[in-house]
Amino acid sequence: MNKDNKKKILFILPTLSMGGQERVVSRLSYFLPESFEKFLIVFYKDRIDYPFNGKIIFFNLPLFRGPIKILTKVIFLFTRIFTLKKIKKEINPDFSLSFGPEANIVNVFSSLGLKKIKTIVSVRTVESVHFKRYFFLLRWYYNFIMKFVYKLADKIVPVSNFVAKDLIENFGVKKEKIFVIYNLYDIERIKKDSKEDLREFKKLFSEKKVIISAGRLDSQKGFNYLIEAFKKVNENFSETILVILGKGDFKKNLEKLVERLKLKEKVFFLGFQKNPFKFFKNSFVFVLPSLYEGFPNVLVEAMICQVPVIATDAPGAMREILSPNLKEKKIDGLFLGEYGILVPPKDPKAISEAISLFLNDEKLREIYIKKAFQRANDFKLENIIKKWKEILS
After folding, report:
1. How confident is the model at residue 64 (pLDDT cuts 50, 70, 90)?
2. Count of domains for the chain
3. Nearest to residue 72, comparing CAs of 81, 80, 64?
């Protein structure tokens, strides 16, 4: 197809490293049809963990860590808006698609006065819950400004029905603007990658029953509750170990907890892994202990890798994924959903009981492996790309 006949789409992200939204953008860039010419704006200097099928433009703003990180986002706000507006005028895209609060703010305000561009914002988390983490003024700032962002955007794409409900109830978003699209997964590629050799980790995974989790090492992810739960599990099942994939500022807190619970030889932090699937495939059970999630990539990826899953019944898409038809039975405080077990958030006792259930009942584990993979197929590329093509028409 002649380049001049292609529709231009501009993706906007803070970084292209580690997180779930970055992985989604990478997949979209490859699986949206060639009738789109793709560009990506990245705000911060950082490494690239995921490939992008198109042209990448870096703002090269400094990326700070810790509390100052949030302040720099506000300080550099106008710099990003004016820079992005200039780029939009040069590229003249048909669609401008951003991911997450920071990018959504910059995307919408840089499109003011540029009538040709359809501005689409993707909402990746339960924002009414997420903003509560910030101190008062910053919380007020985000709650205030996001209402304007959603009012000015042409289309809003929440990543789950739960997130859509949150936008309607807490940010006054009109239903007509909302188009729910789940994350997409290249199932065949994930299956292939899951068969890769574990190399230096092979012995670790072959000698023990591995309880695994993955995500940014952050208080939101609830890894401290999982570690506390594992303490109880390991007392009864000494053949178990806990492996956590990911990196983040909360690692030191988690390491101190591991030391306090005398689990140093039983809990392993393996850092960020470009191919987490080979670790999932060789694990006994996957646990998602998050306090809230928009739509957890790693949960579905573990299901594709044919490992049974346990997740918190917290704000977000976990129930949508594991028990969409609300067909479940309750056993001792655990909800046995259609495709995985749901436990209350911040509840180490419930997490330990759910893990123990699988350790005691191999037949139940095998049933959930099959069911989990069956459910994961609902999120395959073809199904989700079709929805993206509809809103980009």
Report:
1. low
2. 2
3. 64
